[in-house]
Amino acid sequence: MDNQSLDPRVKRLKLNTGGEPVTVHEGENWNVFEVFHQEKRGAHHEHVGCVHAPNAQLALVFAKEQFARRKKCVNLWVVRSADILSFDTEDEDMFANNLDKTYRDASGFKVMEKINKFKKSTHDKE
Amino acid sequence: MYGGGYIFDEPDKRQLKEEQLHDDPEKLVEFEARIARGEKIEPGDWMPSEYRRQLIRLIEQHAHSEIIGALPEGTWITRAPGFKRKLALIAKVQDEIGHGQLLYNAAETLGKSREAMINDLLSGKSKYSNVFNYPAETWADVTVIGFLIDAAAIVNQVANAKGSYGPYCRALERICYEESFHLKQGHDAFIELATGTPAQRAMVQDALNRWWQPIMHFFGPPDKNSVHSEKLMQWKVKMASNDDMRNQFLDAYVPKIWDLGLSLPDENLKKDPVTGKWCYSDPDWDLFKKVINGGGPCNKERLDVRKWAEEHGRWVRKALMNPAEKTTAPVA
Amino acid sequence: MTRNEAISQMLTAMADDALIQGHRNSEWTGLGPIMEEDIAFSSMAQDKIGHAWALYRILHENLGGTEPDRFAFLRGEKDYRCCHLVEMPNGEYDFSLVRHFLFDHAEAVRWEHLQQSTFEPLALTARKLKGEIKYHTLHANAWITQLCRAGEESYARMQSALNVCFPLALGIFEPSPEAETLLVNEKIYAGEATLKEQWLDRTYNILSVAGLNLPSEGSVTPAYGGRKGYHTEYLQPLLDEMGYVFRLDPEAVW
């Protein structure tokens, strides 16, 4: 049966206009791969999103057009989302910086103070 | 592209109570404080069940709007005049599909699979932006959609991009960037007609007349009729009121239309010099409801086309599907 | 026939192929089997139309041809030089994929040769398009090999699409003896027979991995005629549609 679409592309399709339900089955849209994008040589690969793909080869093929069709890009990585291990977000407190740990920080070492003190003391002796 | 406003439904009272019983009050305080500080919520975070439910609904409907939105403009892909217009239109419709892809991924992080969302679209359970239930009758319609509906969508999406849910904001950041190309190419094609031959001008005026009411509907019913959004605003799910967004849109774009000597089919449309707010005739809100509920000129066709695409793509998806594999959600 | 006439004839055929193939592929935009593939296939449709545009510009700017939009959108059917393969309606995705595979490998072979063409504008364009075409064949190879190893239904679909497409695809290499001799002598390109042999080698490598059987060349009738202006019943309606808006007022700017 001819449909009355204004879109000639659609008009050529044999649409099922009977209103029967169409169901997509779980897993039919494949699995999820995270995509990492390298903007230029020497730069880190950065996470930019994900694609649904049946395997890594097609994930890469898809990622190329979904994540690099505009933005500058020299390389992409894809990795199965299931293979990414991360901390629980509620463990964010582990990352809190303890301000007392100044021995890890350049600012924790007051070199100039010591030099000035030394210079002052030798100057005072003279 | 998407319009806000009518997308939030009122929760089922009894169900809500039960869900809220499970919401740890201490965690809720912490959650709300985090949002008040301007921090983002990430997929693994604790969140109230109502926040999750409304976000899934919002992002899913936004995603549906992108892939359904590809259809009215797709109407003119094979007829676009000249290389530049032809390529820009294909690229634009392609972007809408790309936006759908980003948004479904964002919604998936909240625990609903892409398949389940597509099924809810196909069955009519889940809605999409009403504006796409109207036909794109002439080439000028494409320019009006590309210019004004994308402009309206930008108002909405820029607001949403400041919301509280990390994955949605990240998707919107990219989407807004691409929408600015859509708006520009739409504006360019619109101006070409508006400054062209008398027949071209008549064509674009006719398209404006037909699209004006759907555009006024785009941001949803007036604020006075949607009183349940305080919580959603506090949670930064809903970021701006319908009337504010509509006003912002009118303020930016009505002058651009009038500048070209084109008219809009509303005698009452004018800016109040005192309040700075735009006055307009109320669009037909009963019609709006009727179209949402399936009574628009293209509702059936849009879903029939999506069903065709899903059915005819099925053998490809099934062939490469691995039933033994457990599917996972995106991590971020 | 002069050198420039021969070049124009070749470029028109190449450009018409790319335009019509891109146009057909763009019909899938928004209707593809899954969003990710929809996006990829649409990009390649845009690339094809872009290649056509680049070639029409060379015709216009270097060879005294008509302005590209008018030339591409307003010619009569008999003046198109595309092969029958690209004119065919999309059918199901199997047909579109196999056509894409056969067509894009032919493009890849042709454009690689043209990088060394003595006709400088063409050599320049060939070098510019190299990366795009590489992606097109990579995409096609991935799909062909995967779908052919993904169960009986999928394999059978691909094999029958190949049976339909192969004689049509041979039409890409329809000989035009007079122009070819001239172009080969001038080192502008390698000639259809040479390109066809390389194309058969390349596609065979993938088809054998996929386990598909290529019909023997002798057993099929190549779909010739397109290069001489004889087309299938599908081209005229496509052209009516493509030029519809433009023809509302060919003098207006759109």
Automatic annotation (TrEMBL), chain A:
EC nos: 1.14.13.149
InterPro entries, alphabetized: PaaB, PaaB_sf
Record-given protein name: 1,2-phenylacetyl-CoA epoxidase subunit B
Gene symbol of the encoding locus: paaB
Lineage of source species: Bacteria, Pseudomonadati, Bacteroidota, Chitinophagia, Chitinophagales
Ranges annotated as spanning the membrane: none
Entry GO MF terms: phenylacetyl-CoA 1,2-epoxidase activity
Signal peptide range: none
Keywords linked to the UniProt accession: Oxidoreductase
Automatic annotation (TrEMBL), chain B:
Name recorded for this polypeptide: 1,2-phenylacetyl-CoA epoxidase subunit A
Species whose genome carries this gene: Chitinophaga chungangae
Keywords (A to Z) from UniProt: Oxidoreductase
PANTHER family found in the cross-reference section: 1,2-PHENYLACETYL-COA EPOXIDASE, SUBUNIT A, PHENYLACETIC ACID DEGRADATION PROTEIN PAA
GO MF entry, a single one: phenylacetyl-CoA 1,2-epoxidase activity
Source species, domain of life: Bacteria
Enzyme class (EC, first level): oxidoreductase
A Pfam family recorded for this sequence: PaaA_PaaC
SUPFAM superfamilies named among the record's database cross-references: Ferritin-like
EC number assigned by the record: 1.14.13.149
Automatic annotation (TrEMBL), chain C:
Source domain of life: Bacteria
Keywords: Oxidoreductase
Enzyme class, UniProt record, top EC level: oxidoreductase
Cited InterPro entries: Aromatic_CoA_ox/epox, Ferritin-like, Ferritin-like_SF, PaaA_PaaC, PaaC
Gene Ontology molecular function: phenylacetyl-CoA 1,2-epoxidase activity
UniProt cross-references to Pfam families, sorted A to Z: PaaA_PaaC
EC number: 1.14.13.149
The protein's name: Phenylacetate-CoA oxygenase subunit PaaC
Lineage of the organism: Bacteria, Pseudomonadati, Bacteroidota, Chitinophagia, Chitinophagales
Gene symbol of the encoding locus: paaC
